[in-house]
Amino acid sequence: MDYAEYNRAAWDQQVEQGNEWTIPVSKEIIAAARDGDWHVVLTPQKHVPKSWFPSIAGLNILGLASGGGQQAPIFAAAGARVTVLDNSPLQLEQDQLVARREGLSITAVLGDMRDLSQFPPDSFDLIFNPCSMSFISDTHRVFKESYRVLKPGGRLLCGFTNPARFIFDEDKLAQNEFHVRHKLPYSDTTHLTTSELEKLRSTNEPFMRSHSLEDLITGQLKSGFILADLFEDVSDNDPISEFLPVYFATLAIKTTQKST
Q: What is the pLDDT of residues 183-223, one digit of tens each?
């Protein structure tokens, strides 16, 4: 099942409910970014190393599925030219809320992260993609499209959920019980019961799925990228983080010739 349409409405509702990834950054954070003191995240806690970025001023950045009034306004305040593509109109509106409040320029584009056809080749210096691959079915299209729209030498920064995170029963995790239930690759729509899916719908939770490490890492390499760096991260809100890194992020660089 391709559930992009459902997830669009679900993320709009997450904005209304005040999900932590939909809350716009403060005036103080924007003021600091204007002074050169800025930090962004691809995963819940760790700041992305500054070494992953070229000089930010004048950089053409695509925030890929990164609406929410958080990373994009920081980049814009630091001097980058920022475009954000997101599946949720209200997530995009969070970026525009900060832009209006702070006098920033951010281009908002409503769309599916797997389809970047509206952007010509070599459009961006950097693509910033916080953890969102778990909301789509096909990562290969994202990597191929990202490669196409990046300039030679451009950088793709992605955050991911560790596939191992999806083997556990969520209801039991809420009670701090680690019950292995699901065979990977996981998908809400194929692994949950009808009543469990209805529970997700009733609370406006986006549908999720896992991807293999082969898809997430080798998929970048096969699209032509060179993997330059990687870090792992945890979340204070996830009991599994006591035992393994629940998230990781990669820095990939566009080469001038695709691998075979």
A: 999 999 999 999 999 999 999 999 999 999 999 999 999 99
Cβ atoms of 104 and 78 within 8 Å: the answer is no
Query: What residues have CB less than 8 Å from 225, skipping those under 6 apart?
Result: 143, 147, 156, 252, 253, 254, 255
Four-residue CA torsion sign, 109, 42, 60, 227? negative
Third-level CATH fold of 4-167+212-254: Rossmann fold (3.40.50)
Percent of the chain with pLDDT over 90: 95
Give CA separation, 64 vs 88, 93, 217, 231, 239, in Å.
Answer: 12, 15, 18, 20, 28
Dist. CA 134–CA 202, nearest whole Å: 20
Buried/exposed code over 93-129 (b: 16+ C-beta within 10 A; e: otherwise): bbbbebbeebebebbbeebbbbebeebeeebbbbbbb
Predicted TM-score of the model (pTM): 0.95
Alpha carbon 44 to chain centroid distance?
Answer: 11
Q: For the chain, what percent of residues have pLDDT higher than 70?
A: 98
